[in-house]
């Protein structure tokens, strides 16, 4: 028996040891009404993680019981995201696969006297449900005969009644301290075409009725879900037991993933998409898995993050810097290095010749690989890397100063030119002889090291930089939207070797950050990169 690392594994280990189960079967059950986000990644890692640890199975099952909000677009995106994270499901299933069996289970409850057709409106049902301190009131239709309920339910299925005019409710206890047990609705009339069953059905099961049955039909051993379903567990057990599945699956709840400055609500994410604040569900600013893929996040880093967050029973908030730490750690080990200048000015070098350097791709790689970088008497450097009147502790090129060009010479200031607005256009420098690595002047003290790009051999590119969608603090959602969450640098220049990059290739642009080639990289002569994360962070796992 493998050693457990959390309370879910403790439960599974005990169930295996006592012989309750010989094989562990879990499921990931998204509703196809939106794209998966980082919160879903935690559930994916737990459910598929149990499969991997115990050599069991994990089904992908769509809870498609509400056709008014569901779409094939979401079905396809969910599959793509799961595969991208590196998980493989054992069966692809749908709640709609079981609509006939669910209907039979509802009929069984009616025959047992445990369900009835109710004519009350949704508002009346809500008003009669009671509160946490006062019991609810029985529906006036609660005592309908079994025969009448069977007839009415059959006619609901046949489409004889208008939407909202009748519902099927479980007959449990209107005085239960758990409001979920106060005769909950288990079927409603809904004339919406379903993405798989078309117009076959005009009644659909409610989630709390459908979910335990789906788990039972599939032989799920452990139904692992987030903490908000803890109060629904008595209803989950009531449905499976009274429909003939005892003991059936066991529901286990864990704390959902909450992150500061991160939107975890599908409703609000959809609002951003529908109102055009972002460019679709896969916008690199979105906390969706597809957005993170477009931004360039390595899937291994997301799995590492979920592993580090762990599995808890109590809700808490995780610092987004923890995710960025995991992403940065992965990229530091795996991303090739390159030089790019975001806001270029010319550097003219006196005494320079055309040269080619062999530069290491990644100093952290086990197997060393190299690429060529060309050098000439005209380079591009970052505008901020030369200042006429620098602030205190400025460590780059200044009037009368020296600076090292990365992987190349030390150069000394000679002159500069400004445009009509007083902005620096170019700076002229002179090479310090024999100052490359290994030279007699290589150890000369300089203010700093700056990146550069050969102005006679470069790739024009565009850099997209992203910030959080939400500003820090509290307040109304709309008031917290960050107007500066996307900044574009459209005059950037990079090493010419970057032209050979492929979509989603990841790089560390020296002194700038980690970037990923966009999904349509190189199409129509456009070379664009998304910034994944900055180079530095202040996150400390010992003080998280």
> Judging from the principal axes of the Cα atoms, what is the shape?
elongated
Quaternary structure: single chain
| Largest sheet features | 7 strands, mixed
Strand order of the largest sheet: 12-27-28-29-25-26-13
Task: Please describe what this structure looks like.
The chain is of the alpha/beta class and 544 residues long. Helices cover 25% and strands 25% of the residues. It contains twelve helices and 29 strands. The strands form eight sheets. A seven-stranded mixed β-sheet has the order 12-27-28-29-25-26-13, with helices on one face. α3 links the parallel β2 (57-62) and β3. α2 crosses α11. The chain is elongated and about 100 Å long. The two termini are 32 Å apart. The model has no long low-confidence stretch (mean pLDDT 95).
Quick structural summary:
The chain is α/β, with parallel strands linked by helices. The protein contains twelve helices and 29 strands.
Helices and strands in order, then pairings?
Layout: H1 7-17, E1 25-28, H2 38-54, E2 57-62, H3 72-85, E3 92-94, H4 99-111, E4 115-118, H5 122-127, H6 146-157, E5 167-170, E6 185-189, E7 203-205, H7 207-218, E8 222-226, H8 233-242, E9 250-254, E10 258-259, H9 266-274, H10 289-295, H11 299-309, E11 317-318, H12 320-334, E12 336-338, E13 340-341, E14 344-350, E15 355-360, E16 370-375, E17 378-382, E18 386-387, E19 397-398, E20 402-405, E21 410-418, E22 424-431, E23 449-450, E24 453-454, E25 458-466, E26 486-495, E27 506-509, E28 513-517, E29 528-533
Helix pairs in contact: 2-11, 7-8, 11-12
């Amino acid at each position: 028996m493998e050693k457990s690392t959390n309370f879910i594994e403790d439960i599974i280990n005990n169930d295996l040891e006592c012989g309750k189960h010989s094989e562990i079967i879990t499921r990931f059950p998204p509703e196809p009404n939106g794209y998966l986000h980082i919160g879903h990644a935690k559930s994916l890692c737990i459910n598929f993680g149990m499969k991997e640890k115990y050599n069991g199975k994990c089904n992908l099952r769509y809870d498609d019981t509400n056709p008014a909000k569901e779409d094939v677009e979401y079905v396809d995106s969910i599959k793509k995201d799961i595969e991208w994270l590196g998980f493989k499901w054992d069966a692809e299933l749908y709640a709609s696969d079981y609509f006939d069996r669910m209907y039979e289970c509802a009929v069984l409850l009616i025959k047992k006297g445990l369900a009835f057709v109710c004519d009350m409106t949704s508002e009346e049902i809500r008003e009669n449900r009671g509160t946490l301190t006062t019991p609810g009131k029985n529906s006036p239709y609660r005592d309908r005969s079994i025969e009448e309920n069977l007839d009415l339910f059959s006619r609901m299925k046949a489409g004889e009644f208008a939407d909202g005019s009748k519902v099927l409710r479980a007959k449990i206890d209107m005085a239960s301290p758990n409001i979920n047990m106060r005769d909950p609705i288990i079927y409603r009339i809904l004339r919406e075409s379903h993405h798989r069953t078309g117009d076959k059905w005009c009644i659909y099961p409610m989630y709390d009725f459908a979910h335990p049955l789906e788990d039972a039909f599939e032989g799920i051993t452990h139904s692992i879900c987030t903490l908000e379903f803890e109060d629904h567990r008595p209803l989950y057990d009531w449905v499976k037991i009274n429909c003939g599945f005892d003991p059936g699956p066991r529901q286990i709840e864990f704390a959902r993933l909450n992150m500061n400055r991160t939107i975890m609500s599908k409703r609000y994410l959809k609002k951003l998409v529908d109102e055009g604040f972002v460019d679709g569900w896969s916008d690199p600013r979105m906390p969706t898995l597809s957005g993170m893929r477009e931004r360039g996040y390595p899937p291994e880093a997301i799995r590492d993050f979920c592993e580090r967050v762990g599995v808890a029973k109590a809700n808490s908030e995780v610092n987004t810097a923890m995710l960025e730490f995991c992403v940065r750690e992965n990229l530091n080990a795996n991303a090739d290095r390159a030089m790019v200048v975001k806001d270029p000015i010319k550097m003219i070098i006196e005494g320079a010749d055309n040269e080619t350097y062999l530069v290491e791709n990644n100093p952290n790689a086990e197997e060393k690989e190299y690429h060529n970088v060309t050098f000439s008497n005209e380079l591009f450097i970052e505008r901020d890397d030369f200042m006429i009147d620098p602030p205190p502790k400025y460590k780059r090129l200044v009037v009368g100063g020296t600076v090292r060009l990365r992987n190349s010479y030390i150069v000394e200031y000679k002159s500069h030119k400004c445009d009509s607005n007083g902005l620096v256009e170019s700076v002229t420098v002179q090479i310090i002889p024999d100052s490359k690595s290994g030279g007699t002047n290589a150890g000369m003290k300089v203010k700093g090291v700056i990146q550069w790009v050969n102005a006679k051999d470069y790739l024009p590119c565009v850099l997209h930089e992203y910030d959080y969608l939400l500003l820090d603090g509290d307040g109304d959602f709309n008031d917290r939207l960050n107007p500066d969450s996307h900044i574009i640098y459209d005059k950037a220049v990079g090493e010419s070797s970057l032209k050979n990059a492929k979509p989603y290739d990841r790089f560390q642009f020296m002194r700038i950050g980690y970037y990923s080639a966009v999904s349509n990289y190189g199409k129509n002569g456009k070379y664009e990169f998304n910034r994944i994360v900055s180079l530095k962070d202040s996150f400390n796992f010992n003080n998280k």
